[in-house]
Amino acid sequence: MSPDVLAGALLGLLLGVGLAMIAGQLPWLRTRDLAARVDPYLRRSRSASLFAGPRAASRPRIVLENLLGPVAHRGLGLLERLTGGADQLDRRLRLAGRRTSTDSFRIEQVVFGAAGLVLGIVLALAAIGLRGASPLLGLFIVGLGALCGVLLRDYLLGVEITRRASRMAREFPTVADLLALAVAAGESPIAAMERVARTSSGALPEEFAATVADIRAGTSVSQALTSLGSRTPLESLGRFGEGVSIAIERGTPLADVLRAQAQDARESSKRELMETAGQREILMLIPVVFFVMPLVIVFAIFPGLAVLEITL
């Protein structure tokens, strides 16, 4: 395919997309969406008031929508449909330990999608110019690149959540023992958590510092400990918060509860390690079969071959 034909095809594609976008904004061609008309009259949550004003959008979203207009609005809506709603994304950001807003993360997804779009355009041009592929295949590569960029950012967020959960699982037994020692020495549970947050470093002490800050701000101890389990990806930490709050309410010796929680965390880590070893058993056979056994066979057969050559 000649460069002139390729340039004409790209210009025609851009013209068609532009005309389709202009036609989509015409009032008499726009679809009447019932959900958009009913949405302002619906209650967002059970605790929200019907007379409460709508939540203001963050500054990055306002800037992006002002720059790109309806394209940005539709792009952000498409991202929400692909990777979950705002509430689910906000929970995942809390589990990952990120303090950014959902709109900032959506903008990061748009940036990743733009990078994937550029990479897809480069690959499509290379496929069309060098291999003589069809323009439809090039268009498919461009769309696939943009989609892969968006999904890559969502996948990296999941990786952050998994790493943070594993890091908290390693820190939890030690932190629970420190809390037990502080409580056994005569400190209150809040003072013990504050001491651990002040003298330790890591993901779990940071969450304890946030819990202490919530309690100092007026939140009850049970609610703060419950929210500690809800904003962390570690299930044992949620059980820890519930156990500590129940022990405080019922007057149970807290040091014994904390030691039991630390022992349960160690047993859980051992059990997960054994499960991981069982899952990796097949993978561990690969170096044995393909590297160790051939060497053993060579060392076993080579002396016999050498003796045979000498006798012959």
**What's the number of structural domains?**
2
Number of helical runs? 13
Reading the helices and strands in chain order gives HHHHHHHHHHHHH
Distance between the termini: 67 Å
Q: How would you briefly describe this protein structure?
A:
The protein is built from 13 helices and no strands. The protein has helices at residues 3-24, 34-38, 59-68, 70-83, 86-95, 102-131, 135-184, 189-199, 203-216, 221-230, 235-250, 254-279, 281-311. Helix 7 runs antiparallel to helix 12 (254-279) and helix 9 (203-216) packs antiparallel against helix 10 (221-230).
Structure characterization notes:
- The protein has two domains: 3-24 and 60-164, no CATH class; 165-276, Receptor-associated Protein.
- By secondary structure, the protein is mostly helical.
- Helix content is 80%, strand content 0%.
- It is built from 13 helices and no strands.
- The longest helix has 50 residues, at 135-184.
- The chain has helices at 3-24, 34-38, 59-68, 70-83, 86-95, 102-131, 135-184, 189-199, 203-216, 221-230, 235-250, 254-279, 281-311.
